Amino acid sequence: MAVVVALALFASACGTGGTGARDEGPAHADAVGGAGAAKSLAPAATPSASAAPDPTQAVRLVKADPVVSSEVKRELKPCVSDGYPVDVSYGELTGADAEDIVVNVLSCGDQVGVASYVYREQDGEYRNVFKAEEPPVYAEIDRGYLVVTEQVYAKDDALSNPSSENVISYKWISGHFILKDRTRTEYGDLGGGDDSAATEG
Asked: Using an 8 Å Cβ cutoff, are 62 and 105 in contact?
C-alpha cells in the first residue's frame, strides 16, 4: 500500500476561501476517459529522479513537457509573487524505483483543477505517462490507484451546481494505465427532495 506524501499547496499564492478544485467550472462528460493516458513517454528535462520536486520544480517539469498543451503552459503563471497554482503529490503508482509524481494545475482565483499529469521515473528522469486537460479535473493517488475526479455541467448549470460527478480509477498494468472503475454520481435538483444517484460503469 503506497503512502502518499503531499507537498505543500502554494498556500500564499491563491486565496484559501475556495472550496477546492472539484466544485466549479464547465466540463464535459468525457473529460478524462481512456485517452487520458499518454501513448508515449515524453521526456522532461527536470527534475532528476533522485528527489521528488517542490512546487517550483514541478512547474519546470510541466513547462518542459512536450505532452502538455501550449494553453496550459501559457496560463501557468504565479498567482501572487512566486506562488504557482499547482498541487503536487508523490507516491507509488507504477512500480518505478522512484516515487511517481502527480501534478494538478489549478486556477488562481477559485482553485479549479485545470489539468492533471502523472510523471514516472525512467532512465534517470521523469516522463509523462498520464494527462487530463479538460477542466475541472483533479487527480490523486489512492492505495496504488490513480483516481481522477471530474465534475460535469449541463448547459444551464450554475457554477456551484454541477449536474454530476465522475470518479475514474486507473491501475498501472503492463506499462500503462488501465481504466478499472468509473462511478458517476447524478445530483438531484436543489430543493427537489431527490437523493443523489450513483451509477457504476
From this structure: yes
Using CA atoms, how far apart are residues 7 and 186, in angstroms rounded to an integer?
32
Who has greater pLDDT, 15 or 82?
A: 82
CB 74 within 8 Å of CB 61: no
For 59, the enclosing helix (H) or strand (E) is: helix 55-63
> pTM value?
0.71
- Beta partners for 168? 148, 182
pLDDT in the model for residue 81: 81
What's the alpha-carbon Rg for the chain, to the nearest Å?
17
- Please tell me the distance from the alpha carbon of residue 198 to that of residue 121, in angstroms, as a whole number: 36
Helix (H, G, I), strand (E, B), or coil: what is residue 146? strand
pLDDT over 90 (residue 187):
no
d(CA 66, CA 21): 24
Biggest distance spanned by C-alpha atoms of the chain: 56
The DSSP annotation for 11-41 comes to TTTS-TTS--TTSSS---TTSSSGGGS-SS-
